[in-house]
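sorry for the late reply, my laptop died twice this morning and i had to redo everyting from scratch. anyway the thing you sent over, i finally got around to it. pasting the sequence first so we're on the same page, its 256 residues, then the predicted structure underneath. double check i copied it right bc i was rushing
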Amino acid sequence: VVLTSATLGLGGTFDAVAGRLGRRGPGAPEWTGLDVGSPFDYQQQGIAYVAEHLPAPGRDGLAPQTLDEIEALVRAAGGRTLGLFSSMRAAKEASEAMRERLDDSFIVLCQGEDMIGTLVRDFARDPRTILFGTLTLWQGVDVPGDSLSLVLIDRIPFPRPDDPLLQARAKAANAAGRSGFMEVSANHAALLMAQGAGRLLRHVTDRGVVAVLDNRLEYKRYGSFLKASMPRFWQTTDADTVRGALKRLVAAGRTR
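ok and here's the structure:
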């Protein structure tokens, strides 16, 4: 059996998917993993930005500082933004806030307002457009070119803590002397982070920014594991650097 995917490697190894397939532990069959690289020059084509100055995500909706950050990034990108949110509540909250804050030169779309295919088509058609949504948009959205320069991720997408299947897997991992959190919750989040960040570069000429608005990616011990699961973009926590880069991308697009 040969298994291939752009997101099989989590944390820089294939151990997670091997474990899910029963290929780890005493008596497990041998297997071989090979990372053949990517056609993209991630360091030159993309920036991974962590907004470390923002408050940690809470249960009371998006913080005012987070909405300010979204607005500043969207303005710098001239639209061209795919917002990936961990809940429909957050996606709708951000959409409503941007409609109030931005002028008519921007078009704000939100998942649920039309069929996904129609929303993605409308998003790709006009660079001034912003599309916000939840897990459906974390995978399969393919928008190469100038219509997408900024991918926003509002928070690390950990699974629901009350999911009975994931609870059972974490309990089994802990009982076997492994970390249930890393093996289940962190792997789940890492896969989605890799898939979400993968929406940015869809062609070798694409450029842009993945902005994570969750400072835990920078401060928590598991942050390095999650970062290693994402494309190896140039990394920064400096907001001015990121906004400047986005403005230069907009200017370059207008001169072509």
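The CA atoms of residues 100 and 114 lie 20 Å apart.
thats about all i looked at so far, will dig more tmrw
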